[in-house]
Amino acid sequence: MKKNIIIALLSLVALSCTNDLEELNVNKKDFANTTDASLFTSAQYKLFNQMAETSVNENIFRLIVQHWTETTYTDEANYDLKTRRIDEFHWEVLYRDVLKNFKEAKSLVSGLPDVQANKIATIELYEIYTYYVLVTSFGDIPYTEALDIDVLNPVFDKQDVVFNDLIDRLDNNVLSKFVEDEVGFSASEDIVYNGDIAQWKKFANSLKLQMGMMLADSDPAKAETVVSSAVASGVFTSASDDMKIAFESAAPYTNPVYAALVLSGRDDYVPTNTIVDMMGSLNDPRRDDYFTQHNGEYVGGIPGKLNSFPNFSHVSDKIGKDPTLEAPLLTYYDVEFLLAEAVERGFITGDAETHYNNAVTASINYWGGTDAEAAGYLGQASVAYSTAPGDYKQKLGTQKWLALYNRGFESWTEWRRLDYPLLTAPEDAETTNGQPPYRLTYPDVELTLNEVNIKAAITSIGGDELETKLFWDKN
């Protein structure tokens, strides 16, 4: 079902003539007050927009993970975050436009005479997800003192402490607080699940599953506890559970991919030969959903090199030319891949191959394919779980990377965690280890405004480098 974006800016104050000179200092075109719903809806939109963004000034995760590469410029495909201050933009949007609005929305809800627990739990869940993105992007981050107007120089909390606290908040502030037979945000305010609290609980458990699996290498005992608890409580069971929104058909609320590929009038991106060639070797039925053909063939550009736009395949019309294309943050096929891995690691019981097949089939169906296409694809020795090359990490990592096309951040996170497929950095890359980045560097502005605390964070994580692995990335 389409989730319409409604930026609910309400409560305009009626204007009238006055003889009071003091009122000349009041901006009567500004809002005198706002509502929890308008702030909540605006923050939702900002979050989804940033995660789906593809402007080289704002989000280059598709380039980092080598799903796309560039034509006119090559800096970003070579992991240059500083020239355009990409790390700073990611940081500022999530703190200023997302978390700040969620905090204010929660404050307004908490101040109502009849406090609605479901509203507060929903906002809390969004806050947890946003901090999850920040901590898995940078490492140590401002957390306990973040957004406090009285603290100009917040400390950077240790990444593992933040991560584990987010899991605790999922249990104590979200899952234990949702009440299914009571109302929360209305259908017009909740642009994801239309106020369906049962669906929000499923998302919370599915996020908990994902976060638990992030700990699988660094703290397997904790990971098993978190994962088994999430699964027992109820995770996604079909594509109808997907956590996603659809954008609008008119600017400025179109899908940002459409804005970058159509409204901008620019031809800045082509898919890489990394993904095009792999999908070709596997006879992947999603190729026509992902790419166009060039002279009857699928031809990918070279990561990090100048690639003449007319000489290569392009992003498919399904992805690039639909302004309303939905943007998911977590899907049923994500969950099935996680369940397959959880079985392999012994965290839960079940059959890893069944979950793997479910995941691949769900991804193919998501893009408009059929069960028959999925069965044919999975029937190949190079794809079938029992015969595909490598251990479970290679099988799952490879197919997950393919399924997560056009979801740059999620693909990057899973590539870092599973270490597959094997990706080689371009020869002119900013990284020095022959690999794509393991993290984003801290924004330079933090060194100016919060020097003492950011230097402590840099020491804590082992260096402000693209090559610095985060605490959960042990292999």
TrEMBL record:
Keywords: Lipoprotein
Pfam families: SusD-like_2
Keyword Lipoprotein found: yes
Domain of life: Bacteria
InterPro entries the record matches: SusD-like_2 (IPR041662), TPR-like_helical_dom_sf (IPR011990)
Protein name in the entry: Probable SusD/RagB family lipoprotein
Species name: Zobellia galactanivorans (strain DSM 12802 / CCUG 47099 / CIP 106680 / NCIMB 13871 / Dsij)
